[in-house]
Design brief:
The complex is a heterotrimer. By secondary structure, chain A is of the alpha/beta class. Chain A has eight helices and nine strands. Classes of the chains: A alpha/beta, B alpha/beta, C alpha/beta. The structure holds adenosine-5'-triphosphate (2 copies), magnesium ion (2 copies) and zinc ion.
């Protein structure tokens, strides 16, 4: 791949991103996390966010998903949407546009599953796909395939995951994140509470996503996993500016 | 029939104006009647005067009658179809005294019929006026207690709720069980309570050649159905409106298509059915029609009914 | 990139009760299919705002426009009263906090659901009944209770009946004031699940007032945080809850355990 190819295939481009928390409940304390951060990730590429605890890895990932609102800068995402394609700034787009990008383009696997009362595991996984208009039966079939690969026994598919173990919940969460073939995938320690066998499944899933052209940004505590999936490491400890 | 001008010189009983009400009150009520005729089915509020009868005895109907009656009129008064119940007799006597008009029991001879809870069996004709006594003019009242809301529902023709009450009937009884005060749409615009007449009489209101006036004394409302106006009983496509029907014919006159009252004959469950319209029944018998009941029983019945009247 | 026109547009809405500003200069847009949550402490003006938006309280100032079918964005307070009332029983739904205000307690459950159909001219008993059955099933009410009056239903059943009664005319926009208020937790969960499903399945737009941030998290795409009649913060629900900026929002979020 040439440099030019890489550039033309960029899927996400972060420009001069700055994030500072102001904690009003603690007397207005200011907590600078990063400043003027820039990063570009190409389709088919996986970038691992790196740095010690508290360096801002999760904060950056959440900012890419527009879960956090950065103070300055842009998060451009290449989005092929209902109303035409193009670059959308997740840090500035109106809410309904952000939701559309989240539906179609950017998937996010959080560190912990947010359990929804009464919804069985199968439907939690199928939901994002169904929301895109895929018939429920097809979405459920895909959900079952993923849950199966992640070694969730079929007997559990009909249960709401509230009572699942931490690792089981995390695997449901991962299945949900991989249900749609998002062009951009954001993964926050997806393998943290998994055993070696399931870690390997997740590594495979990431490889497959890259192979179909997904840009992946992830946080991987496990060196082995990181080395297996990431082309590049982005070190957050160097990004703390005078925000 | 003539609508006579006020005849203040002819106060029949000392201290009373012709037909009891003072002329100013009559004018006010007549204006309300005109408005009611102009907007069929719409309830026109009026400033009612007290009548020498308690509410529930037809004061609303009496005020309407008093306001329209003239010397040339002939009055018939019925209560539940009968000319000879206490209420009917009192009202008839009242107008006979205060307006000196002739009274009759024959529907065809009357120019004004004041009624409580029935429409006579003999068809009404052009030029006649039927005045209904109205206990509760608001058909929506039981469903919507808020007066302002009821008025809005009329103003905006929002009558879904009335349909709900018929729905409830069918859900509970398998059919529309409402058999009195069965709601009607007048001229395809206003929902109207036909007063507690049996739904048997509803079709008589439709396209009727006579003018129909309604007076509610307690609620101080007047409404009207002008001659030849469409009056449609509410229903569902799959539960169409139907009138009451009897297996029996009138035991006295043999009439097959009249509204029948059940009469208990003894304490062993013996009963018979007779026309509720007493004059209609009598006339048929005078014409020689006979029911399956013997002449003797008919006499006994007449005596019993007469006794009732005295007791009431 | 062009944005489709909103379903509801609110500009500078103010509602004064004497010297008290229950709503102060509120502006926002709601798009088709969006669920907006309104959160804030007691007395912050949430119900007042909902009443103004749903054509039930004329605001002191400001404009509320709704995308009427076939007419586009229209000032709802410029409509005649019958037009507004028609809107409320057809294209809109209102789920009241107290089911007593939103149901006819003396009419059977089936009749409660059928009323809106009859109000728009349905006159076939069998068809009305089938549709009512359909909706009672959708909100998981026992069909055996269809002819019972809601007077004796539990709070959760009454709330579900209210929802069925409102959704039967397939409204595009539903206003809900504390739909899970006063219900115990397990009943709440069931109701929330139901609402979530219906909102998605029917592509409903909704404005939901709640003081429960967990309810907001589960149902709302976007949040509006109110304090003293003012909107102090708005944004995507997860943004507002996970990265609150306004001091009041931070206080609100930090004072509940985990949402
Ligand atoms: N919502 C928030 N509000 C306030 N401060 C926050 C918030 N989220 C993160 N922070 C702060 O921002 C800094 C970066 O946190 P972040 O979670 O991004 O670190 P991290 O690199 O992911 O750490 P770890 O490896 O432990 O997960 C920390 O000081 C954290 O306390
Ligand atoms: N009709 C009214 N007349 C006078 N003041 C009113 C009226 N309605 C509401 N208010 C006042 O306006 C303010 C906002 O009331 P509102 O009912 O909108 O609050 P809310 O946010 O819904 O509160 P809660 O969470 O307790 O239901 C309150 O101070 C209330 O007392
Ligand atoms: Mg982290
Ligand atoms: Mg309130
Ligand atoms: Zn007879």
């Amino acid at each position: 791949m040439t440099q030019e190819d890489n550039e033309s295939a960029a899927a996400i481009r972060v420009e001069n991103l700055t994030k500072t928390f102001v904690l009003h409940v603690q007397g207005g304390a200011r907590l600078p996390v990063f400043a003027d951060l820039s990063l570009e990730v190409a389709a088919g590429e996986c970038v691992a966010l790196y740095g010690p605890s508290g360096s801002g890895k999760s904060t950056l990932l959440r900012s890419l998903y527009a879960n956090y609102k950065p103070g300055r800068g842009h998060v451009w995402v290449r989005h092929a949407g209902d109303s035409g394609g193009g670059w959308i700034d997740m840090a500035g787009a109106p809410p309904h546009r952000v939701l559309e990008v989240r539906r179609r383009t950017v998937g996010y696997v959080s560190q912990f599953l947010r359990v929804i009362p009464r919804v069985p595991a199968r439907d939690i996984v199928a939901e994002p796909l169904h929301a895109l208009g895929v018939p429920l039966a097809d979405a459920r079939a895909r959900a079952e395939a993923l849950l199966g690969r992640l070694n969730i026994p079929a007997a559990m598919w009909d249960l709401a995951p509230a009572t699942f173990s931490g690792g089981e919940q995390q695997r449901v969460n991962i299945a949900r994140g991989f249900a749609v073939d998002y062009p951009v995938l954001l993964l926050d320690e997806p393998t943290a509470s998994l055993d070696a066998g399931n870690r390997a499944v997740v590594v495979d899933l990431i490889h497959e996503a890259k192979a179909r052209g997904a840009a992946v940004v992830g946080i991987f505590h496990d060196d082995e996993v990181r080395e297996a999936v990431a082309e590049r490491v982005f070190d957050l400890s160097k990004e703390r500016g005078a925000a | 029939m003539t609508r006579a001008a006020p005849q203040s010189e002819s106060v029949v009983e000392a201290g009373y104006n012709f037909a009891y009400l003072d002329e100013q009150t009559k004018r006010m009520i007549r204006r309300c009647i005109l408005k009611a005729v102009a907007v069929p089915g719409y309830q026109v509020p009026f400033g009612g005067r007290e009548m020498p009868l308690p509410y529930g005895w037809g004061t609303g109907g009496m005020q309407v009658t008093a306001s329209i009656i003239g010397r040339a009129d002939t009055l018939k008064v019925i209560d539940q179809g009968a000319d000879d119940t206490t209420n009917a007799v009192n009202i008839r006597r009242f107008f006979a005294r205060t307006a000196e008009v002739p009274t009759t029991e024959a529907t065809a001879e009357a120019s004004i019929v004041q009624t409580r809870h029935r429409v006579p069996e003999d068809p009404l004709a052009e030029g006649q006026i039927i005045v209904y006594q109205v206990p509760q003019p608001e058909p929506l009242r039981a469903l919507e207690p808020r007066e302002v809301e009821c008025r809005k529902m009329h103003a905006y023709k929002e009558y879904g709720l009335m349909q709900v009450s018929l729905y409830e009937d069918i859900a509970r009884f398998g059919e529309i069980a409402t058999s009195y005060s069965y709601p009607v749409m007048v001229n395809d615009r206003y929902l109207m309570s036909p007063t507690p007449i049996p739904k048997f009489d509803n079709p008589k209101m439709d396209d009727c050649p006579a003018l129909q006036l309604f007076g509610a004394g307690r609620e101080k409302r007047i409404y009207a159905v002008p001659p030849y106006t469409r009056v449609k009983s509410l229903d569902f496509d799959d539960h169409p409106f139907a009138i009451q029907q009897w297996e029996e014919d009138c035991a006295l006159c043999g009439a097959e298509e009249t509204f029948l009252d059940e009469v208990i004959l003894d304490d062993k469950g013996g009963k018979m059915y007779v026309c509720s319209d007493s004059h209609f029944c009598e006339r048929r018998r005078a014409e020689g029609h006979r029911g399956r009941l013997s002449e003797g029983a008919a006499k006994a019945y007449a005596a019993a009914v007469g006794a009732d009247v005295e007791e009431a | 990139m062009e944005t489709p026109s909103p379903l509801l547009r609110v500009r500078n809405l103010t509602q004064a009760f004497g010297p008290l500003l229950a709503c102060a200069d509120i502006s926002f847009e709601l798009h088709s299919g969006e669920v907006l949550g309104v959160v804030g402490e007691s007395g912050s003006g949430k119900t007042t705002l909902l009443n103004c938006l749903s054509a039930r309280l004329t605001p002191t100032n400001g404009i509320v426009e709704y995308d009427l079918r076939g007419r586009g964005l229209t000032d709802i307070y410029a409509l005649s009263e019958p037009e507004r009332r028609l809107l409320l029983r057809t294209d809109w739904g209102v789920v009241m906090q107290n089911p007593r205000d939103g149901l006819r307690m003396n009419v059977s459950a089936g009749g409660n659901v059928g009323e809106r159909l009859m109000a728009v001219g349905a006159r076939h008993y069998g068809a009305i009944r089938r549709e009512a059955e359909d909706w009672l099933a959708k909100v998981e009410l026992d069909l055996g209770r269809m002819d019972d009056k809601p007077k004796h239903f539990s709070g959760g059943m009454q709330q579900r009946l209210q929802i069925a009664r409102n959704l039967v005319t397939k409204p595009r926009l539903v206003f809900m004031d504390e739909p899970t208020g006063g219900l115990d937790v397990s009943v709440q969960a069931r109701l929330l699940d139901l609402l979530r499903g219906l909102v998605r399945e029917l592509r409903l737009s909704a404005i939901i007032v709640t003081h429960d941030l967990a309810v907001a998290r589960l149902l709302a795409d976007r949040l509006m945080v109110m304090k003293d009649g003012k909107v102090v913060e708005t944004g995507l629900t997860d943004q507002v809850l996970d990265d609150p900026h306004h001091p009041y929002t931070q206080l609100l979020v930090s004072s509940v355990l985990q949402v």
